[in-house]
Amino acid sequence: MRRSSFTVEQIMRILCEQETGQRAADVCLCHGVSKAMLDNAMVKNINSKSVVF
Length: 53
Prior knowledge:
By secondary structure, this protein is mainly alpha-helical. It is 64% helix and 0% strand.
């Protein structure tokens, strides 16, 4: 299984920034992640309330 390049804390911080109203594109650009990764993290966070990559 592939190891994530982001820690759980980093992913949660990215999700919190996006939830505060910043545009997804701006958050992705700032942190160097793709929109798809952000979408997947949001779905996993909503479904399980804990992000595990």
